[in-house]
Amino acid sequence: MSSKTMRATVLETFGSPPVLRTIPRPIPGPDRVLVKVAASGVNPLDIKISDGAAAHARVSVPAILGIDVAGVVVDVAPGSSGFAVGDEVYGMIGGVGAEPGSLAEYVAADPALLAHKPRRLTMREAAALPLVAITAWEALIDRAGVAAGDLVLVHGGAGGVGHIAVQLAIARGATVYATGSGRSLELIRSLGAAPIDYTTTTVEQYVRTATGGAGFDIVLDTMGGDTLDASFGAVRRYTGRVVSILGWGAHSLAPLSFRGASYSGVFTLLPLLTGEGRAHHGEILTAVAELVDQGFITPMVDPTSYTLTDVAQAHRAVTAGTRNGKVVITVQN
Questions:
Q1: Closest Cα partner for 299 from 165, 175, 179?
Q2: Domains of the chain, earliest start first
Q3: In this entry, which stretches build a coiled coil (predicted)?
Q4: 127 φ/ψ angles, rounded to the nearest 5 degrees
Q5: In this prediction, what percent of the chain has a pLDDT beyond 90?
Q6: How many Cβ atoms sit within 10 Å of the Cβ of residue 140?
């Protein structure tokens, strides 16, 4: 293959599987760095985009998908700062809006969106983190201000965002409860949170058992729908904060208002779509890398091996729920 070309998995038509193509290798323009991609994390959003069911992601075909990346800087354009050739980096760099994604051998990335990779993690493990870690951070720290002594409830504590949120809240000194069912309850326990089986326990029951009826200081909803409604009834009066990453439906705010509590939403894609606040994503990932290297946060990664030729198969595994942790595609070694 020519040094001027690369392999990339391209979504050519919404509703059809992405296909492997040989395309021109990007040349980093001003304020960009060229990253040789080692691994690309797969998020449920990737599948929604592929299916044409994510208008909010503002993707036009043909497009290179892949939001999360881990790799090595191989070229730095004039005007770029913070990284040098040879640096191992990770970030949430594209795959939405007009930014090309990471399902390619190389990507010209905005360095503001990158951070140095956690030393303790492999490339595959690092590629599993950016979207979920940034989302958890924006929810718990930027919106809810989680601090030592807080009583936190994470809905979906074994999920992609949920299992990082549990670890992040514990790292900040909070006491954490998390909802789940079946096998996920043991995983939640292993992360250091108290598991709540939402299929057998009502909101009133677990609020009474965990908080003496007072409610949680912070409730993080990662599920949306009825779970967000349940969150409004589980939060502490006056000072409680509910944060949702999927608050897109129609909900009655009356239960929240009657408790005098507050609500915030998180839309992690905004910096990628608008260009505003990109530096904060890099700052978050730098802080997350420190927590990872200190042993506070470890991502769950599905052990199945996928490559650029297996993207459709990886997407099916995410859709079917057969994965055991975050699905990651190895792009090149």
A1: 165
A2: 5-129+272-330 (3.90.180.10), 132-265 (3.40.50.720)
A3: none
A4: -70, -15
A5: 93
A6: 27
